[in-house]
Amino acid sequence: MLTSTKSWVIFSTLLFQCFIYFRQLYRTILKKDMLRHIFTFSLISLSFLGTSQEQPNVLLIMADDLNDYIGAFGGHPDVKTPNMDRLAASGVQFSNAHTNVPVCQPSRNSFFTGVYPHDSGDFGWTPMSKQPVLKHNKTMMEYFVENGYQTLGTGKLTHGAPQQYWQEWGNNPQHNYGPFYFDGEKIGVLPTVPDPYRQIGTIDGSFGRISAAGVSSGKYGEIGLVYGWDKKPYRFQSDDDRDLIQGELHAQWAVEKFKKIANNKTAKPFFMGIGFVRPHTPLHAPDKYFDMYPIEEIELEKWLDGDELDTFWKENFQGNLSLEGDVKTVYGYRGGNLKGPLLLKTLVDSYGGDRELALKYFLQAYLACITFVDDQVGKILDSLESTDLSKNTIVILTSDHGWHLGEKNHLFKNSPWEESTRVPYIVRIPNGEVKGVVNHPVSLIDIFPTLIDYCSLTGNTKKSNSGGNLGGYSLRAFLENTNTKKWEGPNYALTIVGNYGLKYPKEKQNYSLRTADYRYIRYSNGKEELYHNKKDHYEWHNVVFEKTYRKKLKTFRAQLNNIIQ
Predict the structure, then answer these.
(1) Tell me, what's the pLDDT at 304?
(2) Four-CA torsion 113, 119, 123, 126, nearest 10 degrees
(3) Which of 121, 227, 61, 49 is nearest to 509 (CA)?
């Protein structure tokens, strides 16, 4: 486990000073001159105690389903993310960062425990508290508490009873995915969503302006918007006269907490987590964010017709899920890995087969939700930077995984390709002199050891020997020199797409290795894909059968075998 050099030097110096004064104290006792030296030693003691306050605070901001559509990451040309961009400009931006599992729960389970999925066996939808290995690991939050930190959280951070992992919790997690449309009987899809896409259901089947739900006074049982699954009434008169929605409430909560902590001079260092559901579906946001992206002006990402034909995705999951049959019935099969093609097909069918128009409407909602989150990030950063807390606070912004918008015939996540695995990844350290971009591949799992390093945390990350080993590597080397060659971590980022509908061992999962120049994929059925990303940014051409890449392919095979053996 790493400890900062600065902290060790301070500790050693103070220890030596204490020895000198103890010796001098002994001598002065004999001379009846104790008071002056007792006073001096007290000052040294207080100085030593004060060094604990040098531990930095940590602010973790997580979005959900956010791909590289951030201005600083060269994402969508139309996207408006001024606040995330300014954070990136003030810190280190990891341009080749990837999730370890491209679907919500296992990604977050791995992130908050620091354990690789292939080491824990967690590839699907088992909460951490019930997962055979991870339940024996301390979460990041629990580990910080053991090291004297105060932990505060709100929003979507972990799946399943998130409050239990934090000392202080913010808003009701039942409301995270809202606001939802309520038709007077049940929670459902906004009236503006066309058939058959609306049949997908409440979460993934809804997108649009919250004004589409109509005016409501906020009375219980009234047709209109409700906060969450408990159907708490939501008042909406207009875009400028309405209740705050959940993301806004999270930002408001953080602002209030910063003020309170800043005024408490004896407060412990804090670890604060703020999780925004957006741009996860349902893609609901206030009108003003939709107005920023007129349909007629939206530019679609480049795509290649038939790009999925040289992949082995569908073949690998043929027995898992069929695209035939009733949309709602088929989609309801939770273990299905063909949701991406299903969602895209259904969306296009809903707009009369016009792929471009269908994707523009969906993309408009996706971009609107990103800018909504960006606004909340701005409020949080402004509040933090208005206090002295910012001088000693590490700020991290990331997402649990990406999202496809038609690439490779996908409108979803949970794939082994770039759009699904790549995530925004920004780290700003206090008084950090180094700013810029790191192109070396890194993973979400590297955050835990990075914080252990910078915050000088000590102790075992396991609750018992049954827990998984801490994976990942500290990013300190990159945060001190963006072009360093001294990082101890691997030359790849590892992503696992789980066969979570079936109890397959790690050898039967689907793996993706992303290096600086390549992506190698091996499916559970043994089929492989290889992309030369440096030449083929969009991963349009699978070169796995080309003779030129035989040596490279052999290297990747050996590398992956070594990882999962």
Answers:
(1) 95
(2) -50
(3) 121
Length of the chain: 565
Burial of 32 (C-beta count, 10 Å sphere; 0-12/13-18/19+): exposed
Reported as a single tens digit per residue, the pLDDT across 42-77 is 433 333 333 344 899 999 999 999 999 999 999 899
**Neighbour count for residue 377 (Cβ, 10 Å):** 25
Handedness of CA 501, 506, 512, 515 (dihedral sign): positive
What does the block give as tokens for 469? 């080993």
Half-sphere exposure of 391 (CA within 13 A, CB side): 6
Q: Residue 115: what residue type?
A: V
Amino acid type, 126: T
Q: List pLDDT tens digits, range 162-176.
A: 889 999 999 999 999
Query: Which amino acid is present at 550?
Result: R
Distance CA(52)–CA(354), nearest Å, equals 61
Look at 329 and 206; give whichever has higher pLDDT. Answer: 206
Question: What is the model's pTM?
Answer: 0.89
Considering only residues 299 and 1, tell me which one the structure prediction assigns the higher pLDDT: 299
Separation between Cα atoms, residue 219 and residue 240, nearest integer Å: 19
What would the pLDDT profile of 193-209 be if each residue is shown by its tens digit?
Answer: 999 999 999 999 999 99
- The span from the CA of 289 to the CA of 85, in Å, is 18
β-pair partners for 422: 98
